[in-house]
Amino acid sequence: MSTREIGPVLDFLGITRWREQGKGGGRKDESSQSAVSAAPDALRKVPRSSGSAPDGSIADLDWDHLTERVAGCEQCPLCRSRTRTVFGSGPKRADWLFVGEAPGADEDRQGLPFVGRAGQLLTSMIEAMGLERDSVFIANVLKCRPPGNRDPAPDEIQSCLPYLERQISLLRPKIVVVLGRIAAQSLLATETPISRLRGQVQRFGQEGIPLVVTYHPAYLLRNPIAKRESWRDLRLALATLGNRT
């Protein structure tokens, strides 16, 4: 891994970069080298999620009509408190799909996903993987912000999940990276703790799309020590597609 490649990884992990002094150079941060080079222990597969069947009318929508349906959605009370819906952002044929749980206050104002502090950290995560944010698609399970940034309610997830499932069907990503417990449990239709969902390659839908679970960026902001674990998850996602960093 070159200096240029390793820089974004160190930035995400919050590790101070050492500057070389003269030709002999200074000492390298051995702990950071170890963290970067650590590969996933295994690419274990677990039974795939079948994915819940999207609402019949939603399952037939093309991209433009799906966007319109989300913008005018009134299927749950969140429509009364939102400023804007947050459909998602990125290319329609992205190989990578990142999924969070719900928009926050910044996203509600701008109509775009992950634009606050958690979004800045997500960008760092994506760049640490050697990707560009503009090259991936980013979405949430919920398209409207829950008041007070509370956790999404089960009925809200049930109302909104068909939109995300249709997005996945249209996008046909090569891999899905799920950010946080709520998004993971919603997509995989499980109550399994995130600690048991991480570190494995899950499978989503009838096509068995690889799905890797990691921590939500907001959690990592509160618990930066978990960034190393999250980096292992991201390495697992890269290895699943045959990439190496």
TrEMBL record:
EC number(s) on file: 3.2.2.27
Gene3D superfamilies tied to this protein: Uracil-DNA glycosylase-like domain
UniProt domain Uracil-DNA glycosylase-like: residue ranges: 87-235
Biased composition (Basic and acidic residues): 20-31
Record keyword 4Fe-4S present: yes
Region Disordered, residue ranges: 20-57
Alphabetical keyword list: 4Fe-4S, DNA damage, DNA repair, Hydrolase, Iron, Iron-sulfur, Metal-binding
Family listed: Belongs to the uracil-DNA glycosylase (UDG) superfamily. Type 4 (UDGa) family.
Name this polypeptide is given: Type-4 uracil-DNA glycosylase
